[in-house]
Each structure stands twice: as structure tokens, then as C-alpha cells.
Amino acid sequence: MTTRGVVYAEPGARPAVEEIAFDPPGANEVQVRVEACGVCHSDLHVIETDGWGMKFPILLGHEGAGTVEAVGAGVTSVAPGDRVVIAWRAPCGDSCPACLRGDPRRCSNNLRARRRMHRAFDGALLSPVLRCGTFADRAIVHEACAVKVPVELPVEQACLLACGFSTGAGAALWATPVRAGSSATARWSTGRFPKARTHSQPERAIPGPKRSGTRI
Question: Out of 10, 113, 163, 197, which residue is the most buried by the measure of CB atoms under 10 Å away?
């Protein structure tokens, strides 16, 4: 099977749309037809840092949403036809010290699919950014990373939940947490989350503090 995606082939190269061959989903994996993808600064960071430590060639994109097309053996949480947001991180839940003590944010054994995307012309195995690779028409992800959402939610809004909203609002609602009546200073960023937890544009990060009743 083939699709298209934006490939960053080597340090200094210009990312380009290429034909991609991909394998069907394996056990506990899901094939998603990507219908919308946000543009996050973290993907630019991959390019600016000559790969961010990833193996080349790299398939860019990590803020996607779309429709499940096929599922591998053992998948029970989603089915073909479901609308999903592709999460870039899914904690194991029960097999690492952090999860066992109830702190899944620090999971050291995140669930992930095998790399199944290849450059069509030479067969090189692609490294998807944050195990997503959603600057492509198709993505293969672990079942736990395909989060079902209502079909009424437009995909161009749903994809923002994958990173921009989850990191921005998540920082205020769960990671900090900011409580009702608190005063907070917001630091805006456009991704590159090791530097800042509040993510992307102000209107995408503000809902978390606003929901918690914070004075900004």
C-alpha cells in the first residue's frame, strides 16, 4: 500500500512530499486516514536541530485527526469508521515504576506502534515524529494513541486536541495544577515543549487557565 507524506530526508535537506509505502497495522495497531493536521513548532524544531536526535529519514507531523480505516489483531477500543485524534503519547499504565505509583505523566514505557512507513523509492524505514508522522495521508499508531472523538467534532478542530490544546490546557488543569482563584503568568510558546509547557498560540492555550477560574 502507498500514500504520501512530508519527508525530512537528511540534515540540511528541504522537506518534500514523497510517495510512501506502508505495511498494514499489526497487533494492537490502528491505520488512520489523516484528514487534518495542525502545524506545530516542534516539527520545525526537528528541522532546526538536524533531526532532534531521530534517525533519518524522518516523517514529519504529530498533531493529526482522521478516520480509522483498519485495525490489527486485538484492537477493541476503536473500529473502522471511527473518528479519532492521534495522541503523541500513551502511557503503559501498569508496567513501569511511574505508572505503578500512579504517575502516568512520567511513564518510561510508552505504548507505540512499530515503524511501518517506508520511502517508496528506496525502502528506507521512516521515523515518524513523536511516533505519529501525521504530515501524511495515512498513519499507523498504537491503539491507545487513537482516541475516539464525536463525529460531530470537525477534524480541523479535533486535530488541535492532539497537541496544542492538550499541552496548553493540560499544563494548567492537570500538570501544575492551577486552581480557581489563582493568579498566573502565561508564557506563550509555539511548540518545542521542552522549553515551555504552554503551547502554541494564546487562544489555543488560554482555555485551560480560564476553565480553572484563573486570573491571567
Answer: 163
